[in-house]
Amino acid sequence: MTTDASLPEIVVVAGIIRDAQGRLCLSRRPEHKHQGGLWEFPGGKVEAGEALGDALARELDEELGLRDLVSTPFMSVEHAYPDLRVVLHFREVRAWSGEPHGREGQPVEWVPLQQVSERSLPAANRPVAAALRLPRELVVLPDGLGSAALLSGLASLDPARQGIYLRHAGEQLRGLAARCHELGLRFWIADDADLARRLDAFGLHLTAPVLMAHTQRPAFEGMISAACHDRAQIQRAIDIGAHMATLSPVRRTASHPGATPLGWPGFQDLVREQPLVFYALGGVAPDDLALAREHGAFGVAGIRAFWPG
User: Is 130 within the bounds of a domain?
Assistant: First the structure.
């Protein structure tokens, strides 16, 4: 996306606040403000020279009456509205004192995670609503493994931070999907929305040719993912209502030696200001997560470096 350099820019920090039931704290913006009337993760403008954690603590005290705030980075989003460019840093609030309430008269509600995306949110908040349901690592099922090795590998994955893309599973797919349900693993099915519904898959992953053949959102209510390699594919993913995308190859890989790698600068250029949750794929490993996040990714994905053993 090309950014209009004439647009004014602000830096904002917002808090992801969960209660004991896992509900998220949302507040509604006053009608007279930018994006007025929409629900958002509470926060506000970062002052010049102010640390993000300090800015969030100040804003949540002023807006919600929260004190003793402890927060950590979650993800950052850049978005260009027609009249304003926003760089929005989301932070996960780990501890606080006080009960959230609208000190400026704004409505404040605890919203179940599954209902957050149903609220009318500013465009810059929407990728975060999707990311809250996603793992940081997307493991791609290796080829050539027998049933026992696959089932053993699934059992070694960590459901809290890893999901699994069950590509090329063939006749083993139903058994692997059933095992994922038993283990609490979020799993993705390739291309077939009917099959993804029947197996109660967490996600549907569209390979690049299938993605480009779609002109509207697939008939699937879960997480929709897209395999992207360039700007045109990213735009198609956005047009059909995808929530997330793998973007590759970041680095040269043995499986696709002829593909030109994007490199981290190229990856960052493609994901900037795009309303999707991105996973860096291609020559990356779990240890690259921090580097990937510095360049605009939410998570990392891969085969060999991610599969147990």
Answer: no
Indicate the average pLDDT of the chain.
92
Kindly give the residue spans of alpha helices, DSSP state H, lying in 98-172: 113-116, 126-131, 147-156
pLDDT of residue 1: 43
Shared-domain flag, residues 108 and 168 = no
Give 54's DSSP letter.
H
Confidence of residue 5 (pLDDT cuts 50, 70, 90): low
Instruction: Indicate the number of domains in the chain.
Output: 2
The mean per-residue pLDDT over the stretch 219-238 comes to 96
> In this structure, are 201 and 267 located in the same domain?
yes
Q: 263-271 and 231-239 helices cross at what angle (nearest 10)? A: 30
15, 86, 146, 224, 256 from 166: Cα distances, Å: 34, 36, 14, 14, 19
Task: Tell me which of 42 and 169 has the higher pLDDT.
Answer: 42
